[in-house]
Amino acid sequence: MSEDPRRHLPAVDRLVREAAADPELAGVGRAVLVASARELLADARTDGQVPTAGWQAELKGRVRRALEPTLVPVINASGVVLHTNLGRAPLPEAAVAAIEAVSGYNTLEYDLAAGRRGSRQAHVRSLLRQVTGAEDAGVVTNAAAALYLLLNTLSAGGETIVSRGELVEIGGSFRIPEILARSGASLIAVGATNRTRLRDFELALSPRTRCALQVHRSNFSQIGFTEDVPLADLVTFMGTRDLPVVFDAGSGLLLDLSSYGLRGEPLIPSSVQTGATVVFSGDKLLGGPQAGIIAGPHSVLARAMENPLARALRPDKIVFAALEATLRLYLDPATALRKVPALAMLIADKTELEHRASVLRERIPGAHTEPGTSAVGGGAFAGTELPTTLVVVPTDHPDDLAERLRTAAPRPIITRTGEGKLLLDPRTVRPDEMDALVEGINASL
Ligand SMILES: *Cc1c(COP(=O)(O)O)cnc(C)c1O
Fold first, then answer.
1. What are 390's strand-pairing partners?
2. Among 81, 215, 354, 399, which is disulfide-ready with 166 (CB 3.0 to 4.6 Å)?
3. What is the CA radius of gyration of the chain?
4. How many CA atoms lie within 13 A of 34 on its CB side?
5. Residue 251 Cβ < 6 Å to ligand 1
């Protein structure tokens, strides 16, 4: 019978004492050393293994890893523009500068002219009115929160009518029926999965009806025998009963991109124009920070922003600074298309992508290019595939290489694998990341 290695485990105290005396770990707090030592011993006890490099070397590695940040930048070579796992929209330079500028004291809730308290919403309200055409606007932490706030404000204790075809799950367990239940509103589902008519809403009206809700099907589409009530018709009909309509538009498209082949996503100014109260994200197609924007009639906004929940869902100075700077770019649409990275990546020119792919091909030995497609991501323009040029990196083990690139220091690289290939899509790689991308790939090959 072999001897149980667990009998030879060193004591925590001894490990910590030795690590504390190590000049390479000078300045590391005792709590970090103790936590890492306990974790190391617990793992050794579980798998019955003595670290091959020795206890102190293993402990040092763990301490270093514990001190490194985990929220770090990556190079996105996947071609998915609004990648939720990678932080969705990359911020415009102007937004980054604004964040830095307000990181100390600032006018978040201070009216300089009056010398007294101001409103944090004031920094974006008039910009949002201009770019959406809405009478009033407000901002909370994200679109899910905006929807929750609106339904709670308008409909708690009453009924909200929704088409059965729109009781969707957006992802990350955000489901419309559950949000409604949490907001205190009763869900009245009408119509069939594939077809809903205005008459269905009419029949569902009751003295307890408080509003109707429409939800954009952002991450799937229905084809075949289908029928939906146009938003404008629903707003007109509900208006005859003095009842508001909330429209969850999802991704916040402010500019018409149909001339670039991007269709099917509701344009926010058009949705606002119907008279609906429109909800959308700040970090999807709008291309700014995470935020939930509400744009619509003043009568609805005033009630929503006075709801005590709005206080619990309010964003901080970082978000307001980034959002204000991003919205300013939209005051000139041509500027927005160039300077909002999410938009610039979506409308990137075919020749430009081909050129960037060929630069990568030339600098990565053995690589070749092939035509392919990029995805918009973030549930925007569902099903749309954008033509691109992909770089095929030479490897017989794409999954292993993808893992090495993912875990590479200092800049992890996120790639795409499929059909036995490792692919790079230049669409989502910034020009100033090209060198690091090439170096990272060549070092891992
Ligand atoms: C993405 C999305 C949401 C959620 O937006 P968050 O800002 O992530 O909360 C809600 N509704 C629709 C239709 C969406 O596409």
1. 370
2. 215
3. 27
4. 4
5. yes
According to DSSP, the β-strands at 277-281 and 245-250 are parallel
Q: Are the beta carbons of 281 and 292 closer than 8 angstroms? A: yes
**Residue 173 pLDDT greater than 80, yes or no:** no
The kind and range of the H/E element at 16 are helix 12-20
Whether residue 48 contacts residue 6, with contact meaning beta carbons closer than 8 Å, is answered with yes
pLDDT at 98: 98
CA torsion sign, 226 to 256 to 288 to 247?
negative
Of the pLDDT bands very low, low, confident and very high (cuts 50, 70, 90), residue 410 is: confident
Query: 289 phi and psi, to 5 degrees?
Result: -75, 165
Atom of ligand 1 nearest to the CA of 146: 9
Contact present, 134 and 275 (Cβ < 8 Å)? no
Q: Any residues with CB less than 8 A from the CB of 11 and at least 6 apart, and which?
A: none
76 C-alpha vs ligand 1 centroid, how far in Å? 22
Question: Distance (Å, rounded) from C-alpha 343 to C-alpha 331?
Answer: 15
Mutate to test the pocket of ligand 1, among 82, 167, 173, 174 (most ligand atoms within 8 A of CB): 174
The answer to whether 158 and 324 have CB atoms below 8 angstroms apart is no
Query: By CB neighbour count within 10 A (0-12 exposed, 13-18 middle, 19+ buried), where does 360 fall?
Result: buried
Please tell me the least confidently modeled range out of 177-181, 286-290, 309-313. Answer: 177-181
348 lines ligand 1 (CB under 6 A): no
| Pairwise CA distance, residues 253 & 170, whole Å | 17
Q: H-helix or E-strand containing 41? A: helix 30-47
Contact 212/185 with Cβ under 8 angstroms?
Answer: no
Residue nearest to atom 12 of ligand 1 (CA): 250
